[in-house]
Amino acid sequence: MPLPLNPAFATTDAPPVMEARRWIQGKSFDPARPLINVSQAAPVESPPLGLREALAAAALDDPQAHLYGPVLGMGALREEIAEQFSLAYGGRILPAQVAITQGCNQAFCAVMATLAGPGDEVILPTPWYFNHRMWLDMNGVATVPLDSGETLVPSAGACAALITPRTRAIVLVTPNNPGGVEYPAPVLAEFRDLARRHGLALIVDETYRDFDSRHSALTGGRPHDLFQDPAWDEVLIQLYSFSKAYRLTGHRVGSITASQARLAEVEKFLDTVAICPSQLGQIGALWGMRNLSQWVAGERDEILARRRAMIEGFAALEGWRLLGCGAYFAYVEHPYDMASDVLCKRLVDDCALLMLPGTMFQPEGSAAGRRQIRIAFANIDATGIAEMFARLSAFRP
Asked: Measured between alpha carbons, how far apart are the two ends of the chain, in Å?
């Protein structure tokens, strides 16, 4: 007799990236035409040498690097985030309003654990980030989809119609995963005002903020003005990840910016789940914040160049339609009379391309999801992008 299984887990979908990897298990690809993997949005190279040296020095010479630290994270890192984010957003953030987590996924889970339980509702724009939906499913929280339409930018007006007495939070991701779009500042302000009127939390996941085109040296702009509200912490909870900016995916470092009262509740979750975030990872993140601003700017320029290549490539690819493109992602509509999950498996076999279908980012049975595909282009250079388009152009269903 099998051991018991939490019913909520039984109805939670398998991790999509792991599912896609199973599509290539046991398959071999011609060395002259290797697999192009655009399924996962994660750096595949090591951090810069200086950061690796800082990690090595800490591992060898700093005894504290191997011990438990504060549950809400290293004080120096919380102070650095508060200072830099206050400057970047033109607002006032205190170190006590910052917590460090084991990656941004844990940040989301920790915050959501304090906000919603079985029978509650959380509004997620579609297409959604699948791990957000998975956490809600595993905890018996109902996901309420908010269709973002052709623009992939959700409407606060449409969201208002979905709010019920069971609604606890609205979740936005900008730049968006999977859509790639950068939400305009006025849209975020409208959602903030909507959340405030209804006593809801507005969770803004800015994992990809370092690759937002509005951060570029050319514009000098900021992505939103939410932190300029003197009472921002009454409604706003911001999430962030160090994984993409400094290539620290394996060290798992993220952050939460929220009210001190909310972080006191978050501390209960983190102490139970991880006790404290990785000391070495925090040391790496702190060194990166203090030393790598110019390096990150160069990384952003490279990602924006690849974004331009994706836009140009889809403009010339017959039948395909680019819905959104930014940060690490292009979100597209394919022209074929087959579901996107079927098509993506065909692309593995026929084109040696691994992509994720829109069915992984939309509610079950979604007609839009059957037509959509996410392409994580950050890990392929201009040559790889050109080869990807050549293979897509040659594909015949």
From this structure: 45
pLDDT along the chain (397 residues), means of 10: 92 88 91 93 88 96 94 97 95 98 97 97 97 96 96 98 98 97 97 98 96 65 92 98 92 96 98 95 96 94 95 96 96 97 96 96 94 94 95 94
CATH for 7-46+295-394, among 3.40.120.10, 3.90.1150.10, 3.40.50.300, 3.40.109.10? 3.90.1150.10
8 Å CB contact between 82 and 92: no
Query: How does pLDDT run across 309-364, given as a tens digit for each residue?
Result: 999 999 999 999 999 999 999 999 999 999 999 999 999 999 999 999 999 999 99
For the segment 151-162, what is each residue's pLDDT rounded down to a tens digit? Answer: 999 999 999 999
Residue-range domain boundaries for the chain = 7-46+295-394, 64-292
Classify domain 64-292 at the CATH topology level: Aspartate Aminotransferase; domain 2 (3.40.640)
7-46+295-394 and 64-292, same CATH topology: no
Compute the chain's Rg from CA coordinates.
Answer: 21
pTM for the whole thing?
0.94
Instruction: Report how far residue 36's alpha carbon sits from residue 153's, in angstroms, rounded to the nearest whole number.
Output: 29
Residues 6+ apart with CB under 8 A from 18: none
Between CA 281 and CA 243 the distance in angstroms is: 10
